[in-house]
Specification:
By secondary structure, the protein is mostly helical. The protein contains six helices and two strands. Keywords: Membrane, Transmembrane, Transmembrane helix.
């Protein structure tokens, strides 16, 4: 775990990765259940990554933590899109299961080749931007809230 000036980044990265995976799975599960991609889930992924980074950093937030939250929110969105494509592809080809198709090189290559199509609609880009904004702002706001709570802690002597 790398530590610079009292700031850890290893644990926040682990938290961001866990949140990205969880968010991507939730994205795909909602898409599978509704047979529709709900763009608001992208914002949820951003919020989830922001909170996870804060929790795994012991609320010691620096700009690098905001960057970590944003990066992993993008990973979560990408994973959600990929898992959704895998699910609907598996539905088309009933002889293949989702798990076997998920790790096939052909599936990964096809997704990479058609990547731009999955983010071609303006509404898709809007939700990605909102996810980025959420992931960036959550750590900063939680750090300010934490510092304010510490300043008002009951262990301080009451004023006369």
């Amino acid at each position: 775990m790398e530590k610079k000036q009292g700031i850890t980044i290893g644990m926040p990265m682990i938290g961001g990765l866990i949140a990205a995976i969880l968010g991507g799975v939730v994205w795909a599960a909602v898409a599978a259940m509704t047979e529709y991609e709900v763009g608001l889930i992208a914002i949820l992924v951003g919020v989830l990554c922001g909170y996870a980074v804060v929790l795994f950093s012991n609320k010691q937030i620096a700009t690098v933590h905001k960057i970590i939250a944003v990066a992993f929110s993008l990973v979560g969105i990408l994973l959600g899109k990929y898992l959704t494509v895998v699910y609907f592809t598996a539905e088309l080809y009933t002889d293949m299961g989702v798990m076997s198709l998920m790790f096939k090189g052909e599936m990964i290559s096809a997704f990479a080749e058609t990547f731009a199509e999955y983010f071609s609609e303006p509404i898709d880009l809007l939700f990605v931007v909102l996810a980025i904004v959420s992931a960036w702002q959550i750590p900063g706001r939680m750090a300010k809230t934490s510092m304010a709570a510490e300043a008002q802690a009951p262990n301080q002597a009451p004023g006369a």
